[in-house]
Amino acid sequence: MHAIQQQYWAVRDYLSPVLKESKFKEHGRITPEEFVAAGDFLSYKFPVWTWEKGDASRARDYLPADRQYLVTRGVPCLRRATSLAYTDADEDAERLLSFGDSSSGAADEWVETHAGRNATVDSAANPGEIDDIPDLDGDGLAGAMANVSMTSETGATVGETPDLDDIPDMEEDGLEEDEDEATMAPSAPKPGVSTSGGVIDASQVGVANGNLLQVRTYDVMITYDKYYQTPRIWLIGYDENRSPLTPSQIFQDVSADHALKTVTIEGFPHSALQAASVHPCKHASVMKKVIERMNAGVVQEQLAARKNSGKPQDKDKDGKKKWAFGRKGGKDDNLKGAGEDEEVEGMRVDFYLVVFLKFIASIVPTIEVDSTTAF
Fold first, then answer.
1. 3-class SS at 248?
2. Which residues belong to the active site?
3. What is the pTM assigned to this prediction?
4. How many other C-beta atoms are found inside a 10 Å radius of the C-beta of residue 77?
5. Locations of Basic and acidic residues compositional bias (predicted)?
């Protein structure tokens, strides 16, 4: 059934028309040209993102051949999404802590949340319990110092100058001054450890455990969805040994509200790989709301900057205002400052993917997909 659904989606995407008119402020959708412009801005400002061309047989003709999708590799995922879940039981498990001298009234009070939670496995973030170190005083100190020898290897006690005749000569030990350490015979390998050219075989390296943090990593891709006319995110996960994660393991790093609902395992459009994907059916509406809120702040900043500089907006040779993407109209474009007779541009479309990654970070909160600037 899932294979039939994927075939249906592929045909639907093939038959859908390509968006030609910019609608990123009105409807949250962008054209392929705007997707490329936003991707160029993202890869230029944040070089962890790069363009890839993918499989030539799967290339989309409405995108440049060398700019089919964006990718960033080795994105860390330090913990599971369930560790961030906050339930009604956690709300009840709160207690008031007091620090300082309560008798004088100078004590500080703090609320400890999640007091009823059990500690997770030992890791770098949670080192576990450490036993108390006993104080070495009295009999304990005497017992600890009983086995300490105050005599050096030459037989001289501490504080006594050794006889020069007792110092061994380097020549007597077979160490000539002109002997090169590099020509010395290599030491025999340890039993059970195979080496090749002085390098330890990978099979002999043990898996990290104990208080070492087990870190998953993800390869994150951004493609353009022609049917929904928005970007689409794809995830391929690896464990600490670079072995691919299973679908159930990937869903551990996805918010419970989206796992197996808006996040599913599907075929990556530019290769034969299977990857987790966030379905883009709601991307346009969410991006429209986010852009509206952010654009209002950008407009206010531009009005304040224009008022402080006292310079009019750039115009072309015919006296008309320059537009970054040839747009006209729109409610945000008609905002004017006090005493101003010119429109302001507002947020540009090349910031679209920066905003998009902040939206995706709420769906996969433990995967650090957003390494962009803050607003």
1. helix
2. 281
3. 0.60
4. 24
5. 312-321, 329-339
